[in-house]
């Protein structure tokens, strides 16, 4: 057994006897399956990804982990914990034991650590096996940079000397500042002040200071410039530098010039000073500055002049590197969903002979923007759900994917308003659709929900929709219903065997076998009737005899054809058997011997004949007649009284009268009796009219019945 697939098994046990008609009894048995801790918790994802600003305060919710366990009770209670042996030994994060919400515990520093990887364990509360069952999920947390580091100059003070003959536009020095922040926060621009006469200029991007006008030693021999290095944050952070430039005197006369030149040899390779890691948003324009590659060579002259080259990793020509300045810019549009990471091998080469070089692998991380809409795995989800289930019954799980990352890829699901949508609710995190109310197939069999929507958590959010088609499966929750609550019909007793007398009709709102109706008869048909189990037509199965039984009352049963819990309805059927003239009158005595004294007066009743007809109405109304004309005796047609009409001729008078008894049917039926009349006393003999009498009595007949 598997409780998670079926927690209750319902059986129907049936017992029946061997009588006719067969009688049955039923018993419903429900078997409930008890839970065992045989399912480990299961995370909704194998890996969770999140992004968190480095200035997030402790207590900030990072993400919510969700694990489910289909077991019951403690076996299905899930608790969460970070596996400190495998991850986060410094305790930067904590997970709420019950809810699975991951929160920050300590302040972050992206410059110290930009990526945190956690191993989170979900464990159920089962007693067996010891400690319960568990599962693990991985959490990748990328720390988003904030502008918390100001640019730092490589030197506190720069001092340089220049000649009065220096031409305008000559580069005199290159100041450099670095910013540990990333992206825009780490891009440095330079501003020069303290030069009211505009003798100098500075390249705001590269920090190169050049002469702008002709210098005059006699006018001013020393300049002090204030250089500000400012990042691109909002608000920007700034560092200040003081530069002293000394204008040397040009001694042409009366002087001794001693010049010492130290010749350099190329004995130093370039050394990279710039970070091997850079970040860029995927939606930047072509030509956007991604990174400033800086390599230093302590040699002088051409031996210290460095050029930059990309050796590998730029096969698709996504980036362009200025070999002189080291500025790396985009050469085409980037798409993080196509390529998230670039590893460029950069060569720094000096101009010595032989040339010396150094390489650096520059990793460029393409940061996500919300440029991808979620996409459902299907545009049409079709499924079926049983009716009459309790609210909360699982229906289907819809799933969409978003190629973006972080919050841009975290999806929330919902049902769009439409006909019947209120009968369902959707888990916004998992996309699981469950019933919000019990469904009734007979009220609505198909739900076509026009939109199941999901949207990401990006800003602005993107969304997509899919259609749901839900079919409600039938359960046998309706009994067949007859068109009437009782049926009464009259039939004549001369119907032939097999004649149809009544067509019953019952309907069942259920579907399939649950709505297919079969008919049967129970109670008191006395073998006279049968019903077609499919059509419901009742026919006679033997000849009827109203005089034996004039009315039948029995029940018809309409049962559906469900294979599990069939349902049935009964209706009373009353069949009245109408009379036909199928019985002759019967004389109660035949022959009749009558002694008439010779002195009997005229008009005196000398005898009375009796006859019965078991038919009804005029078919059973009997009239009497004499078959032959008679002057001495007459008969009363209604009462059967034989009256002396004339005086008897002698004392030994005797005669025989033939009396007919006829009913009043359309085609009358007649019986004849002999009445023997005599005047001499004779011994009267008593005799039965029949030598054998036969009758049938149904069982359960009431006492006193005729």
Automatic annotation (TrEMBL):
One of the GO BP terms on file: establishment or maintenance of cell polarity
GO cellular component: plasma membrane
Organism: Prunella fulvescens
Gene: Dchs2_0
Stated name of the protein: PCD23 protein
Origin: domain of life: Eukaryota
SMART domains: CA
Cadherin domain residues: 1-43, 44-153, 154-272, 280-376, 377-482, 483-587, 588-700
GO molecular function term, any single one: calcium ion binding
Subcellular locations according to the entry: Membrane
Membrane topology value: Single-pass membrane protein
